[in-house]
């Protein structure tokens, strides 16, 4: 039985029940007054006002009324799904497809599978990516652990643009904690020490050994952290033979997965959207099977992120 045959992917009432079980695991929360587990009246299934299109009034799924503040709401209020004009069961399908596909799924594919317009699929995919941003700010590493740090360029340029490629390509920094196997990534303006070092200082615990390549932007790492190991990729050195813990192969591996995905699925991504693609890849990487997370748990984790994250600006100009 395919996962997508589950009822909440096809039945709107079941879709609401499913999302409620994930979002309100600790009790129904009223988005208006904030009461958790208070008196709530279930009005789901009642019909809304009559219209020409819906002479009997549209069924209002998942409708609740707060017994404290008397206001109505559904589980979608305050989430990235709130203003999307699409059945919830289709959006849950989209979340499942995005979190379970190894390399991601393009808006074109999504629009075909969900049978919605390209534009709607594009907006939905970005809403979901936004939900996948971790917002985790605690430093990584610590306890004598090892964090690999590396930067890369994303995007392909042609002809004249190629000469200025260094300045025009999109730049990404990644930190991978070898202990937890998790990554943290961000878009950066350039690869100067003034840009890189504050990010490393902010995101990595001091009692950590850091591994990088020989890029000069990382030179002062040794002054702030428990250790700094470097390999010289320019000289073809990928692991220090005297100390085999010195390498940045894990973070290199991360970038190669990301680049393969960006190439295959998201060909012409604008810089303004790059952080959301990064979030999507980071999410899947940090919730991967090797870390003991299955498809179902990954979808639940992705859905938990939909609360309190709204997409303020988006334009369908890529993938
Ligand atoms: Zn209330």
UniProtKB/TrEMBL annotation:
It comes from the Bacteria. Pfam families: DDE_Tnp_IS1595 (PF12762), Zn_ribbon_IS1595 (PF12760). Residues 139-286 form the ISXO2-like transposase domain. SMART domains: DDE_Tnp_IS1595 (SM01126). InterPro entries: IS1016-like_transposase, Tnp_ISXO2-like, Transposase_Zn_ribbon. NCBIfam families: transpos_IS1595. This is ISXO2-like transposase domain-containing protein.
